[in-house]
Design a protein that fits this description.
Layout lengths: L1 H8 L38 H10 L2 E3 L2 H8 L4 H8 L9 E4 L3 H14 L3 E4 L16 E4 L6 E5 L4 E5 L4 H12 L1 E2 L12 H7 L6 H4 L2 H4 E7 L5 E5 L10 H5 L8 E8 L1 E2 L4 E8 L2 H13 L6 E5 L1 H8 L5 E8 L2 H16 L3 E2 L2 H11 L16 E11 L3 H13 L4 E11 L3 E11 L5 H18 L18 H5 L3 H11 L19
Parallel strand pairs: 2-4, 3-4
Antiparallel strand pairs: 1-2, 5-6, 6-10, 7-11, 8-9, 8-10, 12-14, 12-15, 13-14, 13-17, 16-18, 17-18
Helix pairs in contact: 2-5, 11-13, 15-16
This protein binds flavin-adenine dinucleotide.
Length: about 525
């Protein structure tokens, strides 16, 4: 069973920090901490009087450069490139640790009155620079706001504070309530439940359980001026637009998510998997489309192109599709029967048990996009996930891989299909390059520009689950097009001083009204 198995095997073979940030591997190569910022513009200093006020109302305030560098570091390739070149991303800020909702409100009141930026920070596992304090100010670390508040067994709704890490959360609900949320991002041990919501994340079993926005029942949010509001709190409603969804995916720019009520599922005891190989990626996509449109929704439906089939399963001449499901036997057997029929019409049956076992064994290892390559000082690996309609996906796949490969210095571009729906699917591209160390940023931006030009040309969506942060900020206005000014207006209405995570989501980094 996929959900039980994740807890049984544990995250990244146990190589991570439980309940706090886990640093990425490159940190071992960093010898010195410089105070020269790589990714800050005109950082705002927090004065001694404000630091004294913060110390009175919070658990801990850190001001030393080395602490600030360590406590703002994330998993973005952009941060890695600047820090390993001698300039840490954001060394100018103060880090404030809190463990209660009242403390979050106090911090926001102080910051708003003094017009100081506040960047919410949690697991710092984001891969977009979303939690970097690019204008300095206060970094509000929520990792100690991490209690499980309660469980309504009849409605299957759990209430949890935002800073609880994903592994602790799932272990607790599986052990104490025999439940799962079904949200299994490849970062589940190094990210928090609040970070999942703030980035609009997706787990590996999203085809059955949904994305995070399908799992939130309601939540409490602290606004820029310190007010506490409650949004959602119903299965479905017709009371105007859904304000809950406004905050899901807002990446700390509209409010601080402090408590979340999530919908849970009974922990399955039954599961099955099948695997098929297809001659081309496009034929594999067609099999996925058929499965979804004939009404089946297997928990995991993952199709790997030839390059990734070679690295993952030792099958470089095939496009491998894994279909895996869990739940009541009658339902899983029906889903598998529909899936098997669709696959058999288009491809060849593979040794399913071996492919499932290989996937289970490696699915929560970090650094997978670099697999199959020998890292050197000039090596950069990253991932780009997007979503588009079925009609366009084969062309998007071909053109994005082609565009990445055309950038000088690219070693490889590849993809798998990772999350599927009735109308479309998420393609998850991996890009790896090797150039002179000083040319890494140039290669990186060229590769992203080239890939995103294809995505925008097809009117597809820039990100399916990693979010925007700094990485996708330059493409947001073109992508949202006529709707982008609406996002700007909402931001200005909720945060008139622009103190909440300025410079993210493609929004302005200018602090102050
Ligand atoms: C190896 C690896 C694999 C990954 N796999 C997946 C995957 O399968 N699926 C997926 O969706 N993502 C994945 N990610 C990306 C990342 O784990 C997610 O974006 C995650 O949701 C971030 O959570 P976090 O707690 O680390 O948040 P952080 O990185 O600390 O913050 C991310 C953003 O959310 C904001 N934020 C965080 N908490 C709050 C809050 N309580 N209120 C308001 N704003 C907040 C921050 O300001 C920032 O803008 C992966 C990352 C890595 C390194």
């Amino acid at each position: 069973m996929l959900s039980k198995d994740a807890v049984r095997r544990g995250y990244n073979r146990g190589r991570y920090v439980v309940g706090a940030h886990t640093p990425p591997a490159y940190v071992a190569r960093v010898k010195e901490t410089s105070a020269t910022p790589g990714l800050q513009r005109d950082p705002i200093t927090v004065g001694a009087d404000i630091i004294a006020s913060l110390r009175k109302v919070t658990d801990h305030v850190m001001t030393e450069t080395a602490d600030v560098v360590a406590w703002t570091r994330d998993w973005w390739a952009g941060s890695m490139m600047t820090e390993t070149a001698g300039k840490p991303a954001t060394p100018n800020a103060v880090v404030v640790r809190v463990s209660s909702v009242a403390q979050v409100q106090e911090v926001m009141r102080i910051a708003n009155a003094a017009t100081i930026p506040v960047t919410v920070s949690a697991g710092r596992s984001n891969v977009t620079g979303a939690a970097l304090p690019v204008r300095g100010g206060i970094v509000l670390d929520l990792c100690d706001l991490n209690k499980l508040v309660g469980f309504d067994a009849e409605s299957q709704i759990v209430e949890v504070e935002a800073g609880m890490f994903g592994d602790v959360f799932e272990e607790t609900i599986q052990r104490d309530y025999k439940m799962t949320m079904g949200h299994w991002p490849s970062s589940f041990g190094i990210s928090t439940v609040g970070g999942w919501v703030a980035c609009r994340g997706a787990g590996q079993l999203s085809t059955r359980y949904g994305k995070i926005e399908d799992m939130v029942f309601g939540m409490d949010v602290v606004l820029a001026d310190g007010r506490l509001i409650t949004v959602g709190g119903y299965s479905r409603a017709a009371v105007g637009p859904d304000l809950l969804q406004l905050f899901i995916g807002s990446e700390g720019t509209l409010g601080v998510v402090v408590k979340i009520r999530f919908k849970l599922h009974q922990l399955p005891d039954y599961g099955r998997a099948i695997a098929y190989g297809f001659k081309t990626f496009a034929i594999g996509l067609e099999a996925c489309r058929q499965i979804m449109q004939r009404g089946a929704n297997p928990a995991a439906l993952r199709l790997y192109d030839e390059l990734e089939s070679g690295v993952q399963f030792g099958m470089p001449k095939s496009n491998v599709l894994l279909v895996a499901d869990e739940g009541p036997k009658e339902m899983v057997d029906a889903v598998m029967a529909i899936s098997e029929k669709a696959c058999a019409e288009l491809g060849d049956r593979l040794e399913s048990d071996a492919i499932l076992e290989r996937w289970l064994d490696t699915r929560y290892l970090t650094g997978k996009s670099a697999e199959g390559f020998t890292p050197s000082p000039g090596f950069v690996a990253d991932t780009l996930e997007m979503i588009g309609p079925w009609r366009d996906l084969p062309a998007i796949y071909d053109e994005v891989v082609q565009a990445i490969n055309a950038v000088p210095g690219t070693l490889a571009g590849s993809a798998h299909q990772s999350h599927a729906y009735v109308d479309g699917a998420c393609l998850y591209f991996s890009l790896r390059g090797e150039v002179e160390v000083e040319n890494r940023q140039k290669w990186y931006r060229q590769a992203w520009d080239a890939a995103n030009a294809v995505i925008i040309k097809y009117n597809a969506t820039l990100s399916h689950h990693h979010g925007v942060g700094l990485l996708r900020a330059p493409y947001m206005a073109a992508s949202l097009d006529t709707a982008f000014p609406v996002l700007e207006k909402i931001k200005a209405a909720l945060d008139p001083n622009n103190i909440l995570n300025p410079g993210k989501l493609g929004l302005s980094d200018k602090v102050g009204a």
